[in-house]
Amino acid sequence: MAILEVKNLSIQFGGLHAVDNFNIQINQGELYGLIGPNGAGKTTVFNLLTGVYKPTEGIIKLDGVDITGKNPIEINKAGVARTFQNIRLFKDMTVLDNVKAGLHNNYKYSTFTGVFRLPKYFKVEKQMNEKAMELLKVFGLDAFADYLAGNLPYGEQRKLEIARALATEPKLLLLDEPAAGMNPNETQELMDMIRFVRDHFNMTILLIEHDMKLVGGICEELTVLNFGQVLCQGKTAQVLKDPAVITAYLGE
Ligand SMILES: Nc1ncnc2c1ncn2[C@@H]1O[C@H](COP(=O)(O)OP(=O)(O)OP(=O)(O)O)[C@@H](O)[C@H]1O
Question: What is the pTM of this model?
Fold first, then answer.
């Protein structure tokens, strides 16, 4: 079943066709990679999928529902969560509160209940603490729950960003260069973790990545973008062998 279905998606900035007639279909539970040279349009695709940019043309469907042109909050509520190339945590908040911030889509109390500390406030807060700790455990971050997010080592901050995104209970998780800035050991650990997230949550994941070891190691399907257009699409092993991909991207 298709979780994400994108047809003829395009956006222009002035005369630049940053994304041009982009099509993709991602099925439930798939681990899908979006690759391409610098400036190919990958992050722009993420910005279109999350409502940061409105497309000039095209349709985006999430789990059969048309989300084209909706704003980022509506799209997150509909079930798309993302992480960023440059980590964007609430660095002055605790690790636990970062995850709790993601939970607010699904755990609610009124301002009145919060201000006057009514019983529902304590009940919902307890549920949120438990859920957040559960997520932190999955990522081996539970021991750091009280630390300020900004004090975590870099690799752990990346994990926390993924935990916070998952707290919104998405149908589709977008990871923008999750291995950026990581050493080979951290990258290996991240690969295992992404696989685990897919298996444990039956999550559908689309990731942008330049690290070919990671892409070849965990992605089942790939789309290669070049100058805003799809150059090649299909099973990872086949795509990485495609002569056009090797010439345009791998530079061999
Ligand atoms: N808001 C914008 N206004 C004008 N041009 C933009 C805007 N956003 C992106 N672009 C242009 O669109 C093109 C695609 O950029 P994008 O960041 O999507 O590429 P990318 O494939 O993610 O690259 P990288 O791998 O370097 O992150 C680039 O030429 C970029 O300069």
Answer: 0.90
